[in-house]
């Protein structure tokens, strides 16, 4: 679904979906990525993020931009539908892409901006938000969950989410 309205771009993990229950898979030297992503369908929705996505859909086309790998697409789409989030395109990381989230997400944002107005990016990752803001995008730093050092390392150091 695409239209001519401006875009409101939403991250998933710790912006719309609370990953606290699956952080245990990222603890220790050996991270269990299969377990981490397999548990994603059980993520509770984050009310603040969901409310913002729903209200944004009144004026904007909602787009989802996640660092989750493409292999998680089916579960991700089912989760969005199950929790009543607006329909929208979902941009995911290639399964073999290990670049930092701030790099992959900024690349997609720039591509989207060439086709129309990106009104806002909503993301919990401070580095993603800082780079997007430097590039001229309006950002909302999602501060409605406790920051996770393990998830930050995964996003920036390992290019996993």
Descriptive account of the structure:
This protein is of the alpha/beta class and 161 residues long. The chain has helices at 33-38, 47-56, 73-82, 101-113, 126-134, 149-156; strands at 7-10, 61-69, 90-93, 118-123, 139-141. Strands 3-2-1-4-5 form a five-stranded parallel β-sheet, with helices on both faces. Helix 5 links the parallel strand 4 and strand 5. The longest helix has 13 residues, at 101-113. The model has no long low-confidence stretch (mean pLDDT 91).
Give the DSSP E fraction (strand runs of 2 or more residues): 15-25%
Oligomerization category of the chains in this entry: single chain
Q: Helix and strand succession?
A: EHHEHEHEHEH
The DSSP helix count reads 6
Question: What does the radius of gyration come to?
Answer: 15 Å
The helix-and-strand class reads: alpha/beta
Summarize, please:
This protein is of the alpha/beta class and 161 residues long. Strands 3-2-1-4-5 form a five-stranded parallel beta sheet, with helices on both faces.
Protein topology:
Blueprint: E1 7-10, H1 33-38, H2 47-56, E2 61-69, H3 73-82, E3 90-93, H4 101-113, E4 118-123, H5 126-134, E5 139-141, H6 149-156
Parallel strand pairs: 1-2, 1-4, 2-3, 4-5
């Amino acid at each position: 679904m695409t239209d001519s309205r401006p875009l409101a771009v939403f991250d998933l993990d710790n912006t719309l979906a609370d990953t606290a229950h699956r952080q245990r898979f990222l603890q220790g030297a050996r991270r269990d990525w299969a377990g981490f992503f397999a548990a994603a369908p059980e993520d509770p929705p984050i009310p603040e993020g969901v409310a913002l996505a729903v209200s944004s859909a009144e004026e904007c086309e909602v787009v989802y931009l996640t660092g989750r790998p493409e292999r998680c697409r089916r579960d991700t789409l089912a989760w969005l539908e199950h929790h009543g989030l607006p329909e929208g395109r979902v941009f995911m990381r290639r399964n073999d892409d290990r670049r930092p989230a701030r790099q992959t997400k900024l690349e997609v944002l720039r591509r989207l901006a060439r086709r129309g107005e990106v009104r806002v990016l909503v993301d919990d990752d401070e580095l993603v938000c800082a780079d997007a803001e430097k590039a001229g995008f309006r950002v909302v730093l999602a501060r409605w969950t406790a920051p996770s050092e393990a998830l930050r390392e995964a996003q920036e150091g390992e290019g996993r989410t």
